[in-house]
Design goal:
Length: 202
């Protein structure tokens, strides 16, 4: 609205009354303030809001990265502690070579089998595998055992120190006796142990 448009509402030959002039002045002031807002203040406020949103997003991203960094550090500490625990002499076979460790593992298994009245059909050495600073040795053992004997054997393996574990297992029933509560089972276990092998020793 301009002064000319506003004065056009005043009848010809009559001076604008004081209230009309006041209204005209307020209208012109509103138009001027609106123009100032659209031309200068509005874009300035929009820029401030956009910068605030951008900074807020950056702060949130930084907090997430810090949180993930802290989680990674905690996980690294847990892994280091686990590696130290696994490297404890109490948990490792006392051998300096993979072949010597395999013989020790076989002796441990024979003792556990004898304790449950079991006899292994055969012990088959499996290829050793490197696991960081340690070497994993494994034996595949086959036997005939009842379910009760198998449970007792697995509990003995779990409680064994140095630490040994079952990596794979296969259990099959004999045809025609599957319904018997304590029928003999055909059992194959892959039993694992860890050893720190000296460089150059196999």
């Amino acid at each position: 609205m301009t002064m000319v448009t506003a004065l056009a509402d005043v009848p010809a030959g009559l001076p604008a009354s004081r209230p009309r002039r006041r209204l005209l002045a307020l209208a012109l002031l509103a138009v001027g303030v609106g123009g100032l807002w659209l031309g200068a203040v509005g874009p300035l406020i929009d820029g401030i809001l956009e910068r605030h949103e951008r900074e807020t997003a950056q702060i949130a991203l930084l907090q997430r990265l810090r949180s993930r960094g802290a989680e990674a550090q905690a996980l690294r500490r847990q892994l280091d502690a686990l590696e130290r625990e696994l490297a404890s002499p109490a948990l490792l076979l006392g051998a300096t070579s993979a072949s010597q460790a395999g013989a020790q593992l076989q002796a441990i298994l024979r003792r556990l089998l004898d304790a449950e009245g079991l006899t292994a059909g055969q012990f088959q050495p499996l290829p050793p595998q490197n696991a960081g600073t340690l070497t994993r040795v494994a034996l595949r053992v086959e036997m005939r055992a009842t379910l009760t004997q198998l449970h007792a054997l697995l509990r003995g393996i779990e409680a064994q120190r140095p630490l040994i574990s079952v990596g794979d297992a296969l259990v099959a029933t004999s045809r025609g006796v599957a319904s018997e509560a304590d029928a003999p089972l055909t059992v194959r276990l892959d039993v694992l142990a860890m050893v720190r092998v000296e460089p150059g020793r196999e």
